Amino acid sequence: MNNYLLEQQxxxxxxxxxxxxxxxxxxxxxxxxxxxxxxxxxxxIKDCRYLIEWTAPEMEIDRAVKLVEVQRxxxxxxxxxxxxxxxxxxxxxxxxxxxALAQAVLEAI
Length: 109
Hints:
This protein is mostly helical. It has helices at residues 4-11, 16-33, 38-55, 61-79, 81-85, 88-107. It has one domain.
């Protein structure tokens, strides 16, 4: 997502279940990278954070809180990204955790 404003305008036209499905798909895409491309992974994590930012305000509060918890985890990873990338086990754990995060997002539908 290079032009976030255009992406946002197109994304928010979708209904909430479609948005959440797209977010879950991105998280599963991160999981599938399995440590092969740290740069692509960080870019996808950033994209996920934007999707959450554009979706959570339109959700009921309990569901939005769960989504913001996902965003908090993604932000934590980005803040510690250099450390994570220097340790193959940590990077692998990020990829595995994305599967669980994707499941949490799908449960919010």
